[in-house]
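anyone seen this seq b4? input:
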Amino acid sequence: MRTSIHELKDDHFFVKKSLKELTFHDVEKIRVTLAHLFEVTKFHIYAEEEYVFPRIEEKPLIRTLMYQHVVIWNLFNDILKEEYPNFNHLSLLSEMMSLHTFLEEERVYPYFKDLTLEVGEVPKGWEPTFARPYDSMFDKL
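predicted toks r here
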């Protein structure tokens, strides 16, 4: 599958817009939408961590973005496990996505405007590089 930096930016816009629209739908619609957004986000994170980030020299920035990937990944997992989606958790996910996309679009993507990648499907069981086992981010709060 081919993907480009432009398509990764489109992912950012789509996910942020969709998260903001969730408040206007019923619970089942929220679950279906979140599950779809998580699939889009999984591919996006995989493409960045496996194909884009290794090309970047600014390692502290990349490390920060990769830790943010874990937070986003875990938030999606936790929210999808909730019986009823908690709008505070959805808001936290939306805010994290906004911060994360700003950093990528301002600090990473400008260097790769014309980059096109051959990215396969996300391998079964793949997780972000810094992911660790946990029960729930919200249980510790």
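The first helix runs from residue 5 to 21. Residues 2-140 form one domain. kinda curious what u guys think
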